[in-house]
Amino acid sequence: MDAAARQEALKRLDVLVGEWVVEAEFPGLEVPAGHSVFEWALDGQFLIQRTQAPNPAPDSMAIIAVDPETGGYTQHYYDSRGVVRLYAMTFVDGIWQLLRNTPDFSPLNFRQRYAAQVGEDGNTIRGVWEMWRNDSDGWQQDFPLSYRRIRR
C-alpha cells in the first residue's frame, strides 16, 4: 500500500472523530448511556477510541490502524477487565464493521461481529453486536449499540 492509499484510508475514518453518547440495550436491564471519544494520535496515523461505560459494560480503549497489506483496518481493543482483543475492521460507504473470527490475546470461545451504519448527517451510528457460539445456532444478536455525536 502506498502513502496516498494509506492517507485515503485514514481520511475515511475522520467521520468518527469527536465526542459521542453511547447507548447499549441489554434485555431486561435499564442501562445509562456511556461516553466515547475518538481522536487522532501520533500525527494522525492512528485513531484512538476511549469509552467510559456504565455497568455491565467495561470501560475500554481501542486503537485503529490501517492494515498495510489489505488497506482495511485492525482495531486493537483493551478494557478495564484486562481483556485484549484484535478485530478486523472495515469502514466503507458509512458502514462500520468489526469482526473477531480467529484466536487473539484472549480465548476465542465465541466469534463476534459489529455492523453499524453512520447516519446521513454523520452524527449518529446505529449498529448491533452479534455472537457465534456454535455452528448450529449461527450468528445471534448480543446487543444493539448506538452512538450520538455531541461534539466534533
SSE arrangement, N to C: HEEEEEEEEEE
Query: Into how many domains do the coordinates divide?
Result: 1
Which sequence of strands runs across the widest sheet?
A: 1-2-3-4-5-6-7-8-9-10
The DSSP helix count reads 1
Portion of residues in beta strands equals over 45%
Question: What structural class do helix, strand and pairing data support?
Answer: mainly beta
- Please name the CATH topology: Lipocalin
Q: Work out the helicity level.
A: under 10%
Protein name: DUF1579 domain-containing protein
Briefly say what this structure is.
The chain has 152 residues and is mainly beta. The protein has one helix at 3-12, and strands at 18-24, 34-41, 46-52, 60-66, 73-79, 84-92, 95-100, 111-118, 124-132, 139-151.
List its salient traits.
single chain; 152 residues; mainly beta; Lipocalin; 10-stranded antiparallel barrel; 1 helix; DUF1579 domain-containing protein
